[in-house]
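Late entry, evening session. Most of the bench is empty. Finally got around to the prediction I had been postponing all week. Sequence below, unchanged from the version circulated by S.P.
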Amino acid sequence: MKTKYSLWLVIIVVVFVLGFVTTPTADAQGGIIWNTEIFDNPYLLQPAAVTRQDTRIAFDWNVNAPVPQVHADNFTIRWGTDAPFSEGVYRFSVLADDNVRVWVDFQPLIDTFSQPRVGQIVSADLPLTAGTHHIQVDYRENTGNAYIFFDWANLEVFPQGPVLPVPEQMGQLVPLNVGVWTAQYYNNATLTGMPTVVRAETTPSHNWGDRAPFNNLNNDNFSVRWTGLMFLNAGTYRIDVRADDGIRVFVNGQLLIDEWHPASGETYTAEVALPTGAHNFMVEYYELGGDAFVDYRLMQMSTRAPTPAPVTGPRAIVMVERLNVRNTPDIETGVILRTVNQGEVYPVIGRTSDSSWWQINTGDVIGWVFGALVNTRDVMNVPVTSGVSVGQPVTSGVEVVALNDVNIRRGPGIEFDSFAILPEGEMAQVVGRNTTLDWWQIRYNNRIGWVFGSFVSLEGGADLSRIPVTG
């Protein structure tokens, strides 16, 4: 009898213990093994330079290469794992510089390759069944700083979602990555003559090692000028820059850092107080020989990350990926002044009588957006201003000459209608450009439109920093 009771006791204990033993679930990355492939190209093209295993996706490489086998810029990484999940709704979040794609069960969930979201936490919620699910993360670094932090959380357990760390901040300084830079590369060390390469970049920071930036540039004895228009809040800003070799930094035409001499990576610092608004930044660099790099940082002297002043009062929230801002409330005749992006918020200052168009202030132009493509707030008392003259782009002082008869279009692309011709040999004032520098916005016969850059000639020695990005 004693043996029988002992056997039942053992069975009860085993059942009790097993009742609390379940399959491990991936409420976060703990215990997950990632299969990692690191590529020395920006396209995830095989073969990988390095294969390894990681336990978390949480890296801040600054301006350095992730491994010695790849360069500091233009590399890609792919992580993959099969992770067990319990049933529930999960929030996947990522913070990266530059681009990232997240796949769950081979279906895309997050993608910033086409629309970079540098320095922003991007999240997506997804219901998952209990069991194993395949997670893949693709990362691409273009130039400058490089980091990625990725995690997920079961929203029933952690309603706030995953908590991501941020790239290390320097003391009480908050690094900023704002605006688009126009980069002009010269095949000499003196920034003279016509640039060999002109392109848009997100930062002056690069690490070329002992290689040339481009195939048509020298490995040594080249120079670069970056210019950009930055929209900043009022405050004191600090610029830190390291370079091999010479470097100069200007803000609003004022020379703040002047180290135009051979160097090997020294750090130079300057501080400047700026009011709220647009500010012109220019960084000049030259390389003599050996390794070549620039590490540029603009930081606001604050303990918190600076954010744009919140828009209060009448405002419009952009609901589509790209929205045209026009000089008149008419889709046929209104000239595109610039474009705005999904999620951006702008003050509303006017409307048409039927409220089908809203007049907004973007900070650099005043123009009209179609009402069906924005979400408005607190606009009950907005006045009717459809008959009021609106802002036009400011002339940059730069001119183009038509190489043949060129179509003038309503936007920067052949998909936009042509409404006029710039005749061969005629000159027009440039009032704007796109970020890739292949379309110019011009003023001709008091009308504003776009011409394809290959069909016009830009005046020699033009200062591209005077031409705002308007499309």
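Two things to note before I forget:
The chain is about 5% helix and 50% strand.
Helices lie at 2-18.
Will write this up properly tomorrow.
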